[in-house]
Amino acid sequence: MMRAMPELNLVEKVIALEAVPLFENLGPEQLTEIAGIAHELQLAPRKPLLEDSQPADALYIILDGSVELSRAGESLYTARQNEVLGAWALFEEDDPMRVSAHTLEDTRLLRVGRDDFYDLLADNSGITSAIFSTLVKRFRKLVES
Amino acid sequence: MKTRALLRRLFDIRQGEYVKTWSMFLYLLFVLFAYYIVKPVSRAMFLTRFDIDKLPGLYILIAVFGGILAYFYSKLAARTSLRSAVFAATAVSIVSLVLMWWLIGLHLPWMIYVLNIWVSLFSIVTVSQGWLVASNLFDTRAAKRLYPLLGMGMVIGAAFGGEFTNRTAQLVGTSNLLLASAVMVLLAYLSFRVAATHADRSLGHARGAEETSFSVPEMVRDIVKGRHLQVIIGMMVVMYLVDTLVEYQFQRMAQAGYHGDQLTAFFGQFYGIYLNGVEFVFQLFFTALVVNWFGVGGTLLIAPVAVSLCSVAIMAAPGVASAGAVRLTEASTRYTLNKTGMELLYMPLPLALRNRVKAFIDICVDRLSRGIGGVLLLLLTTTSLHMGVRGIAVVVVGLGACWALLAHMARREYVATIRNRLSSRRLDLASTRVSWNDAATIRLLETTARGTNPRQAAYALGLLADAHNYDVRPLLRVLATSPAGELREKIYTVAASLASDDVLEQALNEIRAVQAGGSGSAGPAMAAVVYALRIAPDRAALAAQLLNDPHPFLVRGALEGLRSDRQLAESLITRDWLDRMTHCRDTECRLMAMLAMGELRKPEYVPALIEALGDVEVRGQAAAALVAYGPSICGSLSGILLDQSAPRRLRLRMPRVLARIPDQHSAEALLAALKSPDLSLRAEALKGLNRLRETAPGLNFDDSFVTGQILEEARLYCELNAALSPFREYRDGQRRPSRLLARTIEERLTRTLERLFRLLGLRYPPKEIYGAYLAVSRRQADTAAALEFLDNILDRRLKRILLPLLDAPEHLLEHGKDLFGVEVPTAEEAIRELIRAQAGAEGNGLPSDPWLTACAMAAAAELRMRSLAPDIAEAAERAGGEVSEVARSAEAVLAA
What pTM value is reported for the model? Predict the structure, then answer.
């Protein structure tokens, strides 16, 4: 049975979103916009989060608990508090996930859905350009390395 | 505290500037000390050995050697580096002094000429070199603050040098003082080395040109090309001419009033006590204030105006007192205000150019101008003119007027150079178009239009359609069967503009092909519809049919085609049609409805269009439709913009629409929105106003209201900065509410700065203000130039408030207190103020900012500030959903 935890308020959501590398160029005000579309999710142990071969439709931030990533039954990595899953899924509409993910224990997550995210981008050019800037920086770093 | 503020007003040395400033101060002090040892020595030797009539010859020799020396020194500086040039100049000076000391002992008469020429060149090279080094060490803003202090070094050096010579000449012998001078030169060099080690950029690499080529023609080319340099040279020439004439007047009146030892004592008293005293007082108390208050242009105007006024006194009552007053005014302002102003005048020039030409101009123009001054004096006094002191005073007044005019031009050039530097970072792409007016070009265009590249063919066709006396219709008929959609689209557009029915059948076939489910593409089909609805005999029926076509681009074409016939449009676009299209789930249909409303512009459509601004998918078209209403819609849009009960996301959209309607009503509505407590709305309104200013610069943006808003934003900037002060330490800490609060206040500071510059863009040239904003907000290399630009264009009231905020962030807290009485709060006080802003507390200068309040509440909980619980509770009652949730969480934590 999962413990009842108080829901995150706006400030706590923004603090959680600060951990997402994709949002590193966003200011606090812009993060509040994303916090507005971020929903809290509580999962019991061994619940699936991402399905292998299925496209992901959201980004998840682990608030408490842990999530195991695996491929073909083989465990690859255990993600814990403040780690982010599916960040790039926001930009891959049809591509299936290369890994699956399930909770290892009672886990609390923050979920940002792709459709809501795109609506938000359409309304906020500042957020779009900040995210573009992050992507370009990463791409450049990748090319340079 | 007051003493510190006064000292900062006089000499504002900032963190990281102390060593290089005091080193350069000492450099100039030692150099002038050395000069004032050798100057009396050389003059005394000359006057003892030769008659006074040999003096003009000496001046001419000095001018000739000055030119040669300027050439070689500038060449050395450009080919090597500033550091090497200073080393070489020091080494040559010391060796020369020792050598001359030895040669003078041999009693060779020509050595006295050599010594006198050398002394006059020594001072100009070392002093000019010192200022050149300073211009490499400091940027324009720092120079404005620190040059008066460096000038003070010169004044003190001159005073001490003269006094030293006076007291020791008889003790150690005149010629032995040359060795003391050599010691001072060595000390000056050591000071330079200390300054160089603290330079931001290496002086080892500072040079005039990347290449080693250096020539007089190149220098002349720089001067011919640069109006700024021409004005500097012009001012220097007039200044030295005035100096020569004024010195002559003074010496002549002194000679008439005193004789023998009396004359020597008078000169000693005048130069040693009066002139040095006045210069000292000027440099210590006034130069910095005058430069700050009047700017570079105003500072440069003081000397010519003052000298001219005093010369009027000579005209009225010639005598030792009036001539002395003119000399005192001329010399004291030249060495203090004018010297500082002239050095600052070089600052906006590119560093490479400055390093290349400054030494040359300083040395060459100084010496040559004094030579010319000598010739002018001979002309005025020995030819048939036979002018006396009065006549020369008239000439001085005339030269003073030229000098003042040049000073005025210098101010304009100074600002223009800074402005160019700021705006040259932008690329202005001018559109160009091919000229086609001869037979050969027409043939080439015809060949291109028939060619295989559709884009080129369409472009050529467009040019041919515009060609004078050329009938393009036969070509249209030939090309209408082209498989290239891009070309066909162009053909229908051209045919529509000519109202020619030559290709109507092809156009109708194009439409039918799409309706039959063929592979027609949107571009040519839309162009075909627009063309057919203009020409076709049964266009009403065709339009009615196309408006209900399932292909959106045919509907769009029909709406565009109906644009030219409003009567037909009103009869076909019915309320039913609009309702059906507006409520259609397909975005294209909704877009068509917006387009149609924009075409018909009926008042009853306005609410639907405004509502559509909230729909991400059609808001662009809805905005375009509202813009099509023109100024008549401004009242409705303004009503929503200023209505606090209207949905916020709709209100935020209004400025963008208003900005596209270049009308005074738009400007007034947007200006009214600047009073909104909602900072995002203010920012949007300002963006709209900036856009309006660009598209319709003739509109009135109410300068006095904008000034008031600027001051309000400046006050908010100070208050936010004070609120940030207790939280700066949390900024780079762990992800916690206190860190988030610090980041949020910082973000608000950035936004406030942006709004402030946007407001400035409504009163001053927007392009340059934008350049200044980029430089200031990103603290780029051009920050100093940007601040200097603002210093020169802002009116005094704004300058007094804004420049301290932008120029000295490290003193912002003090400025906030001085200017607006903003005290630095403790963490608890700051949080309380931020929370009370939400509760609308009176006397609280912070605007209501729900997110900032939420962060403040969360930080209060994190820092366990239990005394704030009542404030949080009160704010929670007034706040909306999400802020009150944060408040409840905070209350729970504080209650635990």
Answer: 0.68
